[in-house]
């Protein structure tokens, strides 16, 4: 690639590298340009890597990292000589419709999940906190859409796209979902280990959503956003509490739905709904 060689040999190396190296370099570059921002932030917030984050620590760190993602993705697309839309978002009305369907499916799915557990007596609703819900809906919707689009572009757009070219769709989905799950340890440390199977399965469901949407990310983005929106709204308003009538292995260890059988069943049910859309 003579043009890239003239600009910088690193670009040629990235474009011609094997897929595992290319994916590794992508994350290394992303972290490298984030560190000058992250280190002062971490010091100011008194956070240490692989230690659980308080919400006041997590938001500034995640925001600073995710703001850089479009730059790194654009650079990777430029080096590989593909349009940004190659990652699965074109910004057209079809994508908007897919996002809306995914958002509805994700949100309704959570309503069913917690509704069933309410009927079984496993969770209770804190009625005194309902008035707080209205004030958090808009911020959590924005948060869900932002986290959703960033993580889908990175993991189901770039990473899965790279792996799929060499290893095929299913192998690419398995590996990209594993990377997606493991990288969540950065934010929550060992507390996230019980959620790893659920996070991996979540990644696989989102890969399926991409396939259902003909390799576009609109449906996966909406689904991911719906989950983040729903969970963040419940947490911010402190709306639910666990009664202790069911084992943590059912409802989720440390009150994390993805670390329990119900959360895994919820993801499998969502996968079934997506499969029915094919």
UniProtKB/TrEMBL annotation:
It holds the Pfam family Rce1-like. The chain crosses the membrane at residues 20-47, 59-79, 99-123, 135-155, 167-186, 218-237, 258-277. Residues 136-228 form the CAAX prenyl protease 2/Lysostaphin resistance protein A-like domain. The keyword Hydrolase applies. GO terms for biological process: CAAX-box protein maturation; proteolysis. Keywords: Hydrolase, Membrane, Metalloprotease, Protease, Transmembrane, Transmembrane helix. GO terms for molecular function: endopeptidase activity; metallopeptidase activity. This is CPBP family intramembrane metalloprotease.
């Amino acid at each position: 690639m003579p043009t890239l060689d003239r600009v910088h040999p690193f670009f040629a190396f990235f474009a011609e590298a094997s897929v595992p190296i290319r994916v590794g370099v992508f994350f290394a570059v992303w972290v490298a340009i984030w560190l000058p921002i992250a280190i002062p932030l971490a010091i100011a917030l008194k956070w240490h890597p692989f230690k659980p984050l308080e919400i006041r620590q997590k938001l500034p760190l995640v925001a600073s990292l995710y703001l850089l993602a479009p730059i790194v993705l654009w650079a990777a697309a430029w080096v590989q000589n593909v349009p940004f839309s190659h990652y699965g978002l074109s910004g057209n009305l079809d994508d908007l419709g897919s996002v809306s369907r995914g958002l509805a499916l994700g949100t309704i799915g959570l309503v069913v999940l917690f509704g069933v557990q309410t009927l079984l007596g496993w969770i209770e609703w804190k009625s005194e906190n309902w008035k707080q819900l209205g004030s958090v809906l808009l911020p959590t919707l924005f948060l869900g859409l932002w986290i959703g689009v960033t993580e889908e572009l990175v993991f189901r757009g770039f990473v899965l796209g790279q792996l799929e070219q060499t290893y095929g769709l299913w192998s690419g989905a398995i590996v990209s979902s594993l990377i997606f799950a493991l990288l969540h340890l950065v934010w929550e440390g060992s507390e996230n280990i019980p959620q790893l199977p659920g996070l991996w399965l979540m990644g696989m469901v989102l890969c399926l959503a991409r396939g259902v949407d003909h390799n576009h990310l609109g449906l996966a983005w909406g689904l991911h956003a719906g989950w983040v929106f729903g969970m963040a709204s419940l947490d911010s308003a402190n709306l639910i509490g666990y009664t202790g009538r069911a084992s943590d292995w059912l409802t989720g260890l440390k009150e994390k739905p993805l670390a329990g059988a119900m959360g895994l069943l919820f993801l499998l049910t969502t996968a079934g709904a997506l499969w029915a859309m094919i």
